[in-house]
Write a structure and sequence with these properties.
Strand content: 5-15%
Largest sheet: 8 strands, mixed
Strand order of the largest sheet: 1-2-4-3-5-6-7-8
Oligomer: single chain
Shape: globular
Number of helices: 19
Order of helices and strands: HHEEEHEHEHEEHEHHHHHHHHEEHHHHH
Number of strands: 10
Length: 585
């Protein structure tokens, strides 16, 4: 009797893992939320306002110290991100400035994030923050990264608001600049920035710095007259410059000297006292939790009566058609090499196609061309391999019951429904964090963001390329490359996932290591210009590729089918892409 009672109250491991993953998610969220709000001393709000040029709506995060008031107005700072980014990318500046007594407005520029297409986002942001009753309108600063630097210049030129401090992060100084215009300018560029000439040539800054030979880390002019000038070149690249501790600490010090007269008031903290890395760690922990929750959730859902037939009862024998180690590694390197080697050619072809077939997002056609092209070419190469290697052909299990043509359609429909349930789970958490705490899931870059209606309509376009891509990937990793199944199921799952991640991400990881590692050690750019810029996508794609591989392996081991993993990854990547790329609608 006691044994029967024990069995009834026993919690299956999948439920324990789900509870654990939610706990991890909440712990990470709590850490990030506490740091972003400075332990409750900063109110973090999401606000929207309109531009005067065309009335487009601008979405933003406003960080207000609790002691800011009409009788105690604080300096205000506007932060603007770069191309193909959103306000979440530059949250480190907002966190550290708000902790030190600044009101900070970090915006989604026009066409980016949750802001509408149009113009004038920088100008509108300056006017919005300057008119807040708890902001000192005579002490306004601007921070712009890359494209955001250009928007900052336009805002200074077009707005009636006087900007007393400008920090250009990975952005250029316009030819109109001189010794007094703009006021108090700090230039921060990575020493191996892919898009900047400053690391090797500072001559173009001489007029604006009012000196004939510029020295790094040297203050020129003075803050009281607005002529302060300085350039720093930390060892980082165009992307990582937004979270570089030297850049963040120099920026908060620059704003203190420009907007607070250099006074270290009661709110001030030493510039080296940086908490934003803890915020990023919290975001990473939360991201691990939310993606980990997918695995037990899938196991729970697939056991429901409606989805139970997604499990293929006709499994392959575990001791037949096992590849040799040499063949396994050969196929793995071949598959990883296909995606890596075709990256630049297919992206270029996509740019050419984009002049004919227009997707309303920047680089959308190129990315679609890349994934669709890799999927089709990988399928073609896999077909040739199967044709000449019958042993491998038997590993690819793709047929349903003979004589039942409707079986495949039924399985596909249920696979889509199951995938949408998991996506709804992820989106619900994303929306909850955004609405309640103004937080996001991230590694060091934001991973999941909520979608505007127009972006949600764009997302299905990407399914055209992602579904065949991930379907073929499943056939490679869990079909052609099938290896011996270990006796312990969890060990087999972990072993298979790690090996698949290795082959999928190896070439991308090596390029990142070379580009960043050589740059950090030698201070030089390995791949400069637009080629280097295009490869910056790998910093985001590589961790997402790893997540996709884990999903593929996990679902296949549960169902012995490729459909569910392909659809789930396709929906996930379509969502991520639609939320990141700048849009024209």
């Amino acid at each position: 009797m006691l044994e029967n009672i024990r069995k009834k109250i026993e919690i299956r491991p999948r439920y324990i893992v789900l509870i654990f993953s939610i706990a991890v998610l909440l712990i990470g969220t709590t850490i990030a939320g506490i740091i972003q709000s400075n332990f409750g001393n900063v109110n973090v709000l999401e606000v929207d306002f309109q531009t005067t040029e065309d009335g487009s709506w601008i979405h933003s995060t406003l960080q207000v110290p609790t002691y800011a008031s009409g009788s105690n107005p604080l300096p205000g700072v506007v932060v603007i991100h770069g191309s193909l980014q959103s306000k979440e990318w530059l949250m480190a500046f907002g966190i550290e400035l708000a902790r030190r007594g600044f009101v900070v407005l970090t915006i989604d520029a026009n066409r980016h994030g949750n802001s509408e297409p149009g113009t004038g986002s920088g100008t509108a942001a300056l006017e919005y923050i300057a008119n807040l009753p708890y902001v000192d309108s005579s002490s306004i600063g601007l921070i712009g990264h890359s494209m955001g630097g250009g928007i900052s210049w336009s805002a200074i030129e077009d707005s009636t608001i006087i900007v007393n401090s400008l920090v250009l992060v990975g952005a250029g100084v316009r030819l109109t600049a001189n010794a007094t215009y703009p006021h108090n300018m700090l230039v921060a560029t990575g020493q191996f920035d892919e898009l900047s000439s400053y690391p090797t040539n500072l001559s173009s800054l001489e007029i604006s710095f009012n000196v004939s030979s510029i020295e790094l880390n040297t203050l020129y002019g003075d803050f009281s007259s607005g002529t302060a000038r300085k350039i720093i070149l930390p060892r980082t690249n165009h992307l990582f410059v937004t979270i570089d501790p030297i850049v963040i600490s120099e920026t908060v010090e620059w704003m203190k000297n420009s907007l607070k007269g250099g006074a270290e008031d009661e709110y001030w903290l030493p510039k080296e006292n940086l908490f934003y890395p803890i915020f990023m760690i919290g975001g990473l922990i939360a991201s691990i939790g939310v993606f980990l929750s997918i695995l037990p959730l899938l196991a729970i859902l697939i056991d429901l009566p409606f989805f139970k037939d997604l499990k293929n009862k006709k499994k392959l024998s575990e001791d037949k058609n096992i590849l040799s180690t040499k063949s396994y590694f050969g196929l793995g390197l071949l598959y990883g090499g296909i995606g890596f080697g075709l990256y630049i050619p297919l992206m270029v072809i996509g740019l050419l196609i984009g002049s004919i077939i227009v997707i309303p997002q920047s680089y959308g056609t190129s990315i679609l061309t890349y994934f669709l092209g890799v999927g089709l070419i990988s399928a073609g190469i896999l077909y040739l391999i199967l044709r000449f290697r019958p042993k491998i052909r038997h590993n690819i299990q793709f047929k349903e019951k003979q004589g039942e043509s409707h079986e495949v359609l039924r399985i596909i429909i249920k696979s889509v429904l199951l995938s949408l349930l998991v996506i709804f789970w992820l989106y619900a958490w994303t929306l909850l964090l955004d609405v309640i705490l103004a937080l996001d899931f991230r590694c060091f870059l934001p991973i999941l963001n909520d979608l505007t209606p127009s972006r949600a309509l764009i997302a299905p376009i990407y399914l055209i390329c992602f579904i065949p891509y991930f379907l073929v990937e499943g056939m490679w990793l869990m079909g052609a490359m099938r290896t011996e199944i270990k006796k312990k199921w969890m060990y087999a799952q972990l072993s298979c996932s790690l090996k698949a991640i290795f082959f999928k991400c190896l070439f991308y990881a090596v390029l990142i290591a070379i580009q960043f590692g050589v740059g950090y050690i030698a201070g030089i750019v390995v791949l400069p210009g637009m080629i280097g810029y295009v490869f910056l996508f790998f910093y985001m794609f590589t961790p997402m590729f790893a997540i996709a591989v884990i999903i593929t392996v996990w679902i296949y081991h549960i169902t012995s089918r490729y459909y569910v993993g392909a659809f789930l990854n396709a929906f996930l990547f379509s969502w991520i892409l639609a939320s990141i790329l700048s849009t024209s609608i």
